[in-house]
């Protein structure tokens, strides 16, 4: 049995956006045997660009049921079915998240008509629903409405069934090395980190995903690439840890790869950041950027895996921001530095530029090595409904992350700090946090 589903939403994030329309068509492999569709009140305004795309506006959903009012209908309809959709992870993650908000676990095996189409009808110019249907002669009535797109997906699915009547059987993941298939049942469909071990219980790979189970399955369904095949062949058992927050998953993955150095995480396991660039005020008031060994008591503003990398970065900053080679320890002389004669250095080395002016450029040069806020607590999803994740950056340094029970949470800064488990600060962590905050919504950022 197959539940062929399409949804419309207020945006692209299953965590922060809501479903505005859902259509479900039940197919027994030969014909349609049931259907259900409805607009849904998302409980939040529908953005203008979404209305322009779908035609669904706030007035249309004002008197529509909320998801909790139709949850039992959708659950009953889809029970015992494969959840089928075009780009299934989008629709499935939204539906599952709606149930999660209700405290209900929703799990269905999935089939993606995008992946199946690429496999069974290869060579098409595009596999988006609209373009693919145009190319193979399927007419879509009411494009970007749930019923219209779901019915087009039904027709596409029936075509795929003609090519391969055993679609669901071909979707069963074959686990290597005799691992029991029910092992996958123990892997959660949740955000977190997962671990692959070999027969000697050596950790050989660490990954993260917003859907651990789906990502693990994708590793074993991947039939291309020597590395993928080798890793698959050497994997004997799997473990995972739910984090709730994707940011926590990224931070944990980065930390554990550095600590454990799994053989199949080669690109991410550089750990020995032996050198750094430190900011030091000299006796004349100029801020110098000096390369230091990380074993010294001087705390660097940024660290590197090699002396060459540190020196190359410092040389680049010195040239780009018209800093002084002599002050930065790149040119030894009793007089002016070499760059001063070329007009690149503005004369700090011979006190012809005031420290205040020079130091402003140093500050600009080192901004890229700073967190978006020097003192902040990031609150986001936890591992359960009554928990929040907590990330702490204090005095420009990452202190670590933890979890806190919201039942007793009163927002006190010291209480939040007390939930933190210490983790190492490094350049990768800074990039993870800054990049994540620039591209994703978190529940709250508390600046202090």
Overview of the structural elements:
The protein is α+β, with helices and mostly antiparallel strands and 448 residues long. The protein folds into 4 domains: 169 residues, Nucleotidyltransferase, domain 5; 88 residues, GIY-YIG endonuclease (3-Layer(aba) Sandwich), CATH 3.40.1440; 92 residues, no CATH class; 72 residues, no CATH class. 35% of the residues lie in helices and 22% in strands. The strands form 4 sheets. The protein has a 5-stranded mixed β-sheet. Strands 15-14-13-12-16 form a 5-stranded antiparallel β-sheet. It has a 3-stranded antiparallel β-sheet with strand order 7-6-8. A hairpin with a 4-residue loop joins strand 2 and strand 3. Helix 5 runs parallel beside helix 7 and helix 11 packs antiparallel against helix 16. It is elongated and about 90 Å long. The model has no long low-confidence stretch (mean pLDDT 89).
